Amino acid sequence: MAQPIFIPLEMVANGKPPYPPVLALGFRPFYLLAAAWLVFAMPMWLLIYGHGLISESHLLGPIWHAHEMLWGFTSAVIVGFLFTAVSNWTNRPTPRGWPLLFIASLWLAARILLLTPWSEIGALVETLFFVAAAIGIAQPLFRSGNRRNYFFVGLLLIFALLSAAHHYSLLTDVVWFTARQIEFLMLTVVLLIITVITGRIMPMFTANAIQGAPVHKRSWLDRSAVVATLAMGLSLIFLPETISKWIAVAAALIHLFRWWGWAPHWTLRKPIVWILHGSYLWMPIGFLLYAIPGSWSPMASLLATHALTVGLIAGLCIGMMTRTARGHTGRPLQASKAEVTAYILTMAAAMIRVLLPMIWPEWYRLLTSLSGLLLTIAFAIYLVKFFPWLMQPRADRKPG
């Protein structure tokens, strides 16, 4: 039988792993890379947006911004989370040590190359990254027979396929789907992952943190939310507006009902929990904004997308990145003032980016820049706070 290619933490000399602490588990390098990349890429986008800065990549302007927020920042957080979670689910090692360094290096190389004249090579490297990440979770899942989570392997391979398709649509004259349609397909897959994961963790986190909270987990509602999310995403691409708008309304109501069942109003004194609930609320808000006809508000669709990307995705990322990093570095699950500040800045960035332009559309450019600045500061706070912890062994001296 073939031996696993990833070294379990127990298979080390003198009880010390043969690699630095930052390579002990997937969340460590990928959370640092994700935060650092947002701190770099968001100001870069504001320079492109405000001053017309142009790179020599085939990804230009808003297309580069969308690509780097979905296939760059968001994918790093998802892969870091999955490498950590799959290890817990299966009690088997995911990539760590030098294999983890190799996979993280693929991600970083793609980010750099996609800013240069060698961006076509970056497209290939990015696709290889997703394939390597899929292999990284496939081995422990398949060896342990954890069938419940096999689909995550397929979703990472879909990331690879959509990455290749996005680049192909921009590099060739052959267009099956436009770049914008592929971006929305990628966003839909990310929303599916969020829908599944939040259904597992939100009731548990809330019940564990707040004694007596009336948390309700309904399996039928979780399944309905998955179907509604997929239907909403696909309908906005393939169905007439008159149909897709009603699907978006139905999806928003399902997610809103689901969210309320998790007792969000009980979490206000627990910032490390309320950030997750506050972020999830942007899912139904975004879906409702998609339901607004373009004839009523030409900006509604764009604002809806940013409700999902800034409010939902960035909010959940900052929440899970702090919680996971605290828990897996042996520290209490209690947000500090720095983390609470990052949470507030992220939610403020979403409100400024999504809600205020509906009131003052003439200030749209200024509000967009202010939102991007606040989001950059939020993740810079994370980087400063957690960089030392993620580079050092666990505080309780346990492996991981």
Strand content: under 5%
Biggest sheet features: none
**Unreliable residue stretches:** 1-13
Please indicate the count of domains.
Answer: 2
InterPro entries: NnrS
Transmembrane segments: 30-49, 69-86, 98-115, 121-138, 150-170, 182-199, 220-237, 243-260, 272-293, 299-319, 340-360, 366-384
Keywords: Membrane, Transmembrane, Transmembrane helix
Pfam family, one: NnrS
Walk me through what this model shows.
By secondary structure, the protein is mainly alpha-helical. The radius of gyration is 20 Å and the shape is globular. It folds into 2 domains: 18-176, no CATH class; 180-395, no CATH class. α6 (179-209) packs antiparallel against α7. 72% of the residues lie in helices and 0% in strands. The protein contains 14 helices and no strands. InterPro entries: NnrS (IPR010266). The chain crosses the membrane at residues 30-49, 69-86, 98-115, 121-138, 150-170, 182-199, 220-237, 243-260, 272-293, 299-319, 340-360, 366-384.
Strand and helix map with partners:
Elements: H1 27-51, H2 61-90, H3 98-113, H4 119-144, H5 151-171, H6 179-209, H7 219-238, H8 241-260, H9 271-280, H10 282-290, H11 300-327, H12 337-354, H13 356-359, H14 364-391
Helix pairs in contact: 1-2, 1-14, 2-4, 2-6, 2-11, 3-4, 4-5, 5-6, 6-7, 6-9, 7-8, 8-10, 9-11, 9-12, 10-11, 11-12, 11-14, 12-14
